[in-house]
Design brief:
Length: 228
């Protein structure tokens, strides 16, 4: 599903954020990416959805070679993956329904199909009853549910999340994790950067630890391995 081969990322300011990473992630895996702040986790993840381009190396996702992908093909790539952020990134002027429908409208789905898919997805993440509300009328946890719905409504094969519970209280974080579990059980590959030690040590999955831009640990059913 995801193949990285000897990937480096040096930012224009000279910082080497990713310093030679090779990794394979198989279809259907759930992988946590952990490590101290500044280790390169976000950069690693951003290269997967082509927000950043590696300085060196190759990245293949679902058969698409990202490093040579033309800029005008990036939207095509993004439609095959769901991306979820710590700060939700919903469009404030659109309702919950519209925020999720937006992802389908750009690919010109039939309106009846859009409505059906959006409502099914909102139901899956437990926020169907708030479909007509606006993001600022929702709690953080509810906004994250909407953002997850938006990311999966296209049925992507892979979902990439950068600190999805970073802005949420512990109880809400567990609720959000159960949605990711459900998505993964349905066969979607999940890659998640997180600082949430409790979650990583309780809901066991593969753990990739990054320090100073390199993979220092890669374990099936691994531990968080850091304090706090
Ligand atoms: P993490 O997600 O593990 O906190 P990041 O990937 O955000 O790590 O950052 C890794 C390193 O790259 C840090 O030293 C950070 O300051 C630097 N960095 C991140 N983004 C940029 C950028 N756009 N330009 C320059 N340096 C950056």
């Amino acid at each position: 599903m995801i193949e990285m081969q000897d990937v480096y990322k040096k930012y224009p300011n000279g910082v080497v954020a990713v310093n030679g990473i090779s990794v394979n992630i198989e279809p259907g895996e759930f992988v946590y990416v952990v490590g101290p702040s500044g280790a390169g986790k976000s950069t690693f993840i951003k290269m997967m959805y082509r927000e950043e381009v590696p300085t060196k190396g190759n990245i293949k996702i679902n058969g698409i070679e990202l490093t040579t992908l033309k800029e005008n093909k990036v939207p095509l790539l993004r439609r095959q993956m769901g991306v979820i952020f710590q700060d939700f990134k919903l469009l404030p002027s659109l309702t919950v329904f519209e925020n999720v429908a937006f992802a389908l409208e750009v690919i010109e789905e039939h309106p009846d199909q859009i409505k059906k898919k959006v409502m099914q997805t909102l139901d899956l993440v437990g926020i169907k009853h708030k479909a007509r509300m606006f993001p600022n009328e929702l709690s953080g946890g509810e906004q994250q549910r909407v953002s997850i719905a938006r990311s999966i409504v296209n049925s992507p094969k892979v979902v990439i999340a950068d600190e999805p519970t970073g802005n949420l209280d512990p109880d809400t974080s567990w609720d959000i994790m159960s949605i990711f579990e459900e998505i993964n059980l349905r066969g979607t590959t999940v890659l998640m950067a997180t600082h949430n030690k409790e979650i990583v040590n309780t809901i066991k999955h593969r753990v990739i630890a990054i320090e100073a831009g390199q993979i220092v640990r890669d374990e099936q059913r691994g531990e968080y391995g850091y304090e706090g």
